[in-house]
Design brief:
This protein is mostly helical. A 3-stranded antiparallel beta sheet has the order 1-2-3, with helices on one face. It folds into 2 domains: 115 residues, no CATH class; 281 residues, no CATH class.
Length: 442
């Protein structure tokens, strides 16, 4: 039999573990203590903020209903779409909000999630929640343009090492990443240019690469241009759309998938336009790879790049890098058993419990911050773009390439759904056990 540590030692270990965990907030008042109009306005602000930070609509709806039970005993109805939110409390109080803004700014997402966590415990008044969310949604990027561009360069370099690790291509990844980073930074300050910025960036990067970079790097064109364009690929929209469809959120999933596909088609149009301007499609022999050891430095480089480019919260660098590592190691292990297009399922499956459990530690950022960083690193969009790019630039449509693109998206959506299902089942049973224990003790 395994002998347990002495009681004093167990007590010290328990106290040490509890000291590492975040304190659970306490409810401020019983349900129905606040005016229905204030509660509805708070739910509207929380819901639209969660939609803006790229949360699946079915999860937003479930979270709003959970929060509502802390503040009212009346019937609450919630309708969540990618750009519209409707709230009804009882028969008289209604709230409607719309927003076409979407962001992956991590410190903003962390602030929104923190307010939602307090509301989920009933630990904040509706008026204070509305004020906190208004401040959070107006947050500026933590880092200036120079460091943001540097973050994009590092992210490009990391994905380049991950996707196509050749010595000859490294300097070109840096150059192209800086160029796309400048284009995106300029377009962010000029909203009229935002819709066309991805296509313009794809055209410029493709024209330069087709003209001389692919030959200088002695590499395939699509392998050179995929890493610099990774941040503007709609992988997040495509994956969330697939998740929503699988969860029976048909309208939300179909509209988000159409949005992602439209963005992907615009990027491919930019690629083909760049090729037509230069008219250079000669195939290049692939340069020798750097070696398998590059996988681990790539994780660190991507983590630092995401922290800078996506404005990570203070003190979150190690946690973001760890989340990226869990996702990529899971994907790497998945490739031992299945194709690269399907391996993302294991990475996504492992990321969800890691982020949710790690978020309980006092020094960690919210789970949503780590999940956004991890989903970026899985790059379903990069694989989709490279596969569809081959189909678009070749003379004949490659059905196998199209299948790889679809499989990459669905595999990550499936892994995420399974991860969330296992976690919610486990936490629900844990709550029941705790409740039963409390009743027994009383």
């Amino acid at each position: 039999m395994t002998r347990l540590p002495p009681a004093p030692l167990r007590d010290r270990i328990t106290r040490a573990l509890r000291a590492l965990q975040k304190d659970a907030p306490a409810a401020l008042a019983e349900p129905d203590a606040y005016d229905d109009a204030e509660v509805a306005a708070m739910l509207r602000q929380i819901g639209i903020a969660l939609v803006e930070i790229q949360q699946p609509t079915q999860l937003v709806r479930d979270r709003l209903l959970h929060i509502a039970r802390r503040y009212t005993t009346k019937e609450v109805r919630v309708v969540v779409l990618p750009t519209v939110l409707l709230i009804q409390i009882g028969a008289e109080t209604h709230e409607i909000e719309s927003s076409t803004r979407g962001t992956t700014q991590l410190d903003l997402a962390g602030r929104v999630d923190a307010v939602a966590e307090l509301a989920g415990a009933g630990a904040i008044t509706p008026r204070d929640a509305i004020a906190a969310l208004s401040d959070a949604r107006s947050m500026r990027h933590r880092f200036g343009p120079a460091r943001t561009i540097l973050g994009y360069v590092l992210t490009t370099l990391g994905f380049g090492i991950l996707i196509n690790p050749t010595w000859a291509s490294l300097s070109w990844y840096v150059l192209l990443g800086a160029l796309v980073g400048v284009i995106l930074t300029i377009s962010s300050s000029l909203p009229a240019l935002t819709p066309v910025a991805p296509a313009v960036a794809a055209m410029v990067v493709t024209a330069l690469s087709a003209g001389f970079i692919a030959e200088a790097a002695n590499d395939n064109l699509l392998r050179v241009i995929s890493p610099p364009l990774v941040a503007i690929l709609p992988g997040m929209s495509l994956t969330i759309g697939a998740m929503e469809l699988a969860s029976s959120a048909v309208i939300a999933g179909a509209s988000r998938l159409m949005y992602g596909l439209t963005q992907l088609v615009l990027l491919l149009f930019g690629v083909t336009l760049g090729l037509s301007l230069i008219d250079h499609r000669s195939a290049q022999q692939m340069s020798p790879l750097m070696g398998e050891w590059t996988f681990y430095p790539a994780i660190v480089v991507i983590g630092i790049g995401i922290y800078l480019y996506l404005s990570g919260p203070p003190g979150s660098l190690l946690w973001l890098t760890a989340a990226v590592g869990v996702a990529l190691v899971g994907q790497q292990v998945g490739e031992l058993f299945t194709s690269p297009a399907h391996a993302g399922a294991l990475g996504a499956l492992l990321t969800v419990p890691f982020a949710v459990i790690a978020a309980r530690i006092r020094s960690s950022p919210p789970a949503i911050v780590m999940l956004l960083a991890a989903f970026w690193s899985l790059v379903p969009g990069a694989l989709s773009f490279e596969s569809l790019g081959e189909a678009a630039t070749d003379d004949a449509i490659d059905v196998r390439a199209l299948g790889s693109a679809v499989a990459a998206i669905l595999s990550i959506a499936l892994g995420t759904l399974v991860g969330w299902s296992l976690y919610t089942t486990w936490t629900a049973r844990l709550r029941r056990v705790n409740a039963d224990s409390a009743d027994t003790s009383n």
